[in-house]
Amino acid sequence: MKITESVEEEGLLESSTRLKPHEAQSYRKKTLWVSWVSIVVTLILAVAAFTVSFMKHSASAFGFAFEASLDVLSSIIVVWRYNNAAAVHSAQREYVACVVLGALFVLSSICIIGKASHDLVTRLLPEVDDFLFSVSIVSGLSCLILAVFKCMLARVLTSRALMTDAFNSLVGGAMGFSILVSAEVYRHHPDVWYLDGTIGVLIGLIILAYGIKLLVDMVPRVRQTRNYERFE
């Protein structure tokens, strides 16, 4: 704990004490590669999920589509975070990325909760078919695989921004499978029509809580590292 605090006071992350320069650059390149793959995959999934949500009136599909769009943006932020080879251990760059991610989480959660709540109030019933099932399975598996790779890299680089991106992909995976669950339940029990919208609200609240926590933790650190750089 003391080592971590002393390193952060110098404007560096804990990874600077764990990794040799060539190792840090190797993991940085892997992170950029995974992030670009994530951007392409989640962008395709977002378009497919938005199509499903409007065609099949699925609140959870809309929530996933918005989540996938957020995943695209968060991966773009991670690309910015690690695009500079000299700043691989930069605490200032890390914390700024986290603050932007936190703000995106809060804004997207409001949209997800608003759409799901509207569907619940208007009693919008989802339409179930094979296309919905296919999108949910592909989305869930793709996001979970991306989350695993991001989490592994985040642990090595001690990156909160990359870990947040991994969390975002994990939530996307959970939402992908939630579409499958809510659709299957509705197919056999039409009286439980509200499950789809309820899952959308729940996911929105989770994203909101994480975003607020990220902002509370990171805004003071951005100010702290900025003051340190001025002092230097």
Structure, explained:
The chain is an all-alpha fold and 232 residues long. It has one domain (19-231): Alpha-lytic protease prodomain-like, CATH 1.20.1510. The protein is 85% helix and 0% strand. The chain has helices at residues 2-9, 15-18, 21-56, 59-83, 91-121, 130-157, 160-188, 195-231. Helix 5 packs parallel to helix 7. The protein is elongated, with a radius of gyration of 19 Å. The two termini are 24 Å apart. Mean pLDDT is 82; it is low at 1-7 and 228-232.
Question: Can I get a quick summary?
Answer:
The protein is built from eight helices and no strands. It has 232 residues and is mainly alpha-helical.
* Arithmetic mean of pLDDT: 82
Q: What is the domain total for the residues?
A: 1
Low-confidence stretches: 1-7, 228-232
**What string gives the helices and strands in order?**
HHHHHHHH
First-last Cα distance: 24 Å
Work out the helicity level: over 70%
Q: What is the C-level CATH assignment?
A: Mainly Alpha
Which CATH architecture would you pick? Up-down Bundle
Instruction: State the helix count.
Output: 8
Shape: elongated
| Beta content | under 5%
* Number of DSSP-assigned strands: 0
GO molecular function, one term: zinc ion binding
GO cellular component, one term: synaptic vesicle membrane
Family: Belongs to the TMEM163 family.
Keywords: Cytoplasmic vesicle, Endosome, Membrane, Synapse, Transmembrane, Transmembrane helix, Zinc
